[in-house]
Amino acid sequence: MAERNEQVSPARTVPTAAGKPSCWQHRLFGKQLARCGQMNDARKPIDSPTASLVHEDGRPACEVVGVYFSFVNSGATCDEFTRQLTELYENVNGAGDADRRKRLEVVHVVLWSNVADVLDVDESFRAHVGDLPWLAVPNRDYERKTRLSRRYRIKTGVPTLILLEASNGAIVTRGGVERTIADPTGTEFPWRPPHPKTALEDGPLLPCGARDSNEPMLHEELRYCFKGVYFSAHWCPPCKAFTPQLVDTYQRIRERGHDFEVIFVSSDRSEDSYNAYTETMPWLRIPFNQEERRRKLARAFDVQAIPTLVILDPRDNIITLDGRAELIEDPEGLNFPWNFRLVNILTEKYATSLHDAPAIILFVEGEDCEIQFGESVLLPAAQIYRRDQPDYDPNYDDPDDDSLQFYIALDCETSDILREFVGLDDAVPLLTAIDIPRGIYVVMEYGVEITVDSVQQFVDGFLTNKLPINKIKTMNKTSKTTEHMPA
């Protein structure tokens, strides 16, 4: 196993507000984590941080980081999976040399289904993790636990394991629980997904019933097309509600001259249901009898639920894994193919991200000319900020909590809720920096003209903590921010 001692690249770093580099592990989990095996040492405080995911020289201490969310008092489900995960952890890491980089390190995030029923939270935490071989987010770091749960959309009471590349924080899979159960010894760990192109090329794509041609096609014939890979099923009510929306937007996009094709990947339970469902579709489909091909595509895109719409560019690179949300926000398809944008309109979809990272937000009334003005003054600052992060990849969920976001807020309900939450007046245009994780906001001085230069100065001043800071109104009243600012 000596070959596993190869040279490892230092963990990815990004600039912080003070200009000092910080690796993604520290920004996501904090600089120090608690070691579960030391919880039973009465000489140490229960939350004593003693371990890190990064060596002093910046090298990651493992190949893959598993973020494990488990729930106390949720029945035996989490306890049973914890035992399975412990076996996997021991199998993939082995005994070996203690100095050798681990293949897997687990960061345990312990949550409670109903904390009101817990007499002693610390003792409950100790009992839950005290004998485990990995690391944990300190028990009383409630803010970090909340942010991690929101970032990965954790469902209460359901154990969840998300695997991240230790080198850059990219998501390997959100389905770590399912993968562990299916491969308990970790024979194929870390279950990196296959490239989707191999499954797309593996046979013909058949026409659906409402298509204007009965000719099957090969993937090669779509080499100039943007593609939507649509995972859905006839038995699924949300799917049946979304499919007509997709049909309408698909037709609008094609009418405007875009080369766009949709490929249906079925999760139907019978061929009769599959045939009935595809009769309404005007695009292409993977044959129902090619079950392994359909499974391979689901693994390639780490599909965890349906309906899911993945948008690919003509070279089969992922543009977005969340095409469904993009389409619902933009049913006309005016922003198709929904590439990553440095400056976005603040909608309900993006509102949840404000809980995870600070944002520069320009409030305007909402006329087309004001939107164009907003983009013209914000985009140069956004480009300069991103220029300092050359390894940013929009295909991945960025693990750097403090990555700055740029939004234009129109006169709408989402903006009204945000103004009330923060404590902003109704002035427009209004340039702000809002940092919900820190509970603060900054407003550009009234009377200053909003230009490319003044926006850049404002962003620089915010990042270096040189501007007057205000505390967010609602967060001063209660720490339960999610009850006031909807996700």
UniProtKB/TrEMBL annotation:
Q: Note the superkingdom of the native organism.
A: Eukaryota
- Gene Ontology MF terms in the entry: thioredoxin-disulfide reductase (NADPH) activity
Which BP terms from GO are recorded? Answer: negative regulation of protein ubiquitination; negative regulation of Wnt signaling pathway
Which Gene3D superfamilies does this chain map to? Glutaredoxin
Looking up Pfam families in the UniProt record yields:
Thioredoxin_8
The UniProt record lists the Thioredoxin domain at: 152-348
Give the record's GO CC terms. nucleus
- PROSITE patterns for this protein: THIOREDOXIN_2
Under SUPFAM superfamilies, the record lists:
Thioredoxin-like
Q: What is this protein called?
A: Thioredoxin domain-containing protein
